[in-house]
Amino acid sequence: AVVSLPARVLAGRHVVVTSGPTHEPIDPVRYIANRSSGAQGAAIAAALRDLGARVSFVTGPAEVPPPQGVEVIAVQTAREMREAVEAALPADAAVMAAAVADWHVANARPGKIKKDGSGKLPQLQFAENPDILAWISRLEHGRPALVVGFAAETDDVLDNAARKRKRKGCDWIVANDVNPETGIMGGTENAVTLISEEGAESWPRLTKDEVARRLAGRIAEALNGGEG
Ligand code: CTP
Ligand code: CA
User: At which positions is CTP bound (predicted)?
Assistant: First the structure.
């Protein structure tokens, strides 16, 4: 059979992809996390690999296994994820698809918190996590030429995502509507809008694999001097 292979337009390029949730411990047996299967991030890493890129795949504890043929760096927390991304640099592009927990538990306990029978409830104190996307977007030295973030929103999706692009300082934001009725969270499809300085481009509802292939293609164009 004749199989047409995608052109290796990203050969010699290095891309860092974050994916999955982060887990922020409360104690050794409990954590807080965002919902994320890791499916879209894994598909993006595979699509970039298929175009010939070397991919550093920094992933939290995701349901979907990481793709073959990428360098997998497994982390638990947002702080570990930021350090792993830093260690993976330099990179030509960064795609931050992880659903990073916004806070960690500042008073996490080394031992399991027990119900002591008095009915007294544990009091969790939260501290803000590093914003990996904002940090990498504003690096003075060694900023990847192209930084792509995601914005999963339930309200005013495009306005919020466009504001997020400016606030974080990234080049592109892939915006998606994660209202439960869209069925996107945990599903195989995604409906996204790519937001750049030039404006917003809505893509049809596609499989997550197809979204990943389109995005990888656009990243290749941008890195190879096409539309940025
Ligand atoms: N992100 C990140 N580090 C964080 C939080 C978010 O790198 N600590 C990245 C995500 O991977 C995503 C983008 O930032 O690419 C947007 O994440 P989102 O949670 O939508 O943005 P926030 O600024 O955390 O805003 P919100 O209050 O809507 O959660
Ligand atoms: Ca967030």
Answer: 102, 112, 130-133, 150, 164, 168
